[in-house]
Amino acid sequence: MKENMAQEAKRPLLSEGGKRAPLGEVQGILLPSTTVNNWDQIQKFKAKNDDLLICTYPKSGTTWIQEIVDMIEQNGDVEKCQRSVIHHRHPFLEWARLPQPSGVEQANAMPSPRVLKTHLPTQLLPPSFWESTCKIIYVARNAKDCMVSYYHFQRMSQTLPAPGTWEEYFENFMNGKVSCGPWYDHVKGWWKAKDKHQILFLFYEDIKENPKREIQKVIKFMGKNLDEMIIDKIVQETSFEKMKENPMTNRSTVPTTVMDQSISPFMRKGIVGDWKNHFTVAQNEIFDKDYKKKMEGTSLPFRMEI
């Protein structure tokens, strides 16, 4: 099966050095061309039993949960969390952009216990994760806010194709024609996987509504025991406002050739319900009808507002 997956990785024609390269494809899922070109290395990655994998669909609170996990790992020590930028603390498995080391290479060079990050759907995750007893934290965000956030991210990210107009992007997102494939299949796949594996499934809206309660779930899942004062500190230090000003989390150190934050900030609003500022009444009706059809038969309890 692994051999087939490697063969199914359709490599785009543009070179890795090309700006705004088109997306490639693996098993019908669109992914950045650099990821597709490095697919064999990604699939052969060896997970360890003491790894902690953070998984999300893009723009679902990934950096937020990363910082929460790191703060827990460091027992609320802010200085230790400032040791390096977040994307160096937690290697991003699909990252592959020369001349930097790939995410897999970064992970392989890291001592255990490792915290790793991925946006891959369940069917594309390196098989070693399913064979190990590692823990996985998955954060899901409602589809409407996710679409809006992804649209603005794609406007400024130079590693993904330009998103086109909002109207065009609206259609592409609903049809899964974005990097990491359909949001619907991604969240449903991980929701199902949680019944068979050590997966803590969290919702962005829940963390926003009651960060302390959700952070306590993460602490318990990680097998840690922190006192009340440290937990309160973690809540405070991982607020959107704090993280937006923190150069270790706000991606301000990333070159404009990768992220042009003059177009749109990496940490933009971090709220629930921003979709109301983007969706027209007609788009909302179209989306709701399509959503109902695609999410039929799942018990996933998403909230579009809180």
TrEMBL record:
Molecular-function GO terms, alphabetical: aryl sulfotransferase activity
Major site of localization recorded for this protein: cytoplasm
InterPro entries reported in the protein's UniProt record: P-loop_NTPase (IPR027417), Sulfotransferase_dom (IPR000863)
EC number: 2.8.2.-
Assigned GO CC terms: cytoplasm
Coiled-coil region(s): none
Keyword terms: Cytoplasm, Transferase
Family: Belongs to the sulfotransferase 1 family.
Protein name, entry field: Sulfotransferase
Lineage: Eukaryota, Metazoa, Chordata, Craniata, Vertebrata
Gene: SULT1C2
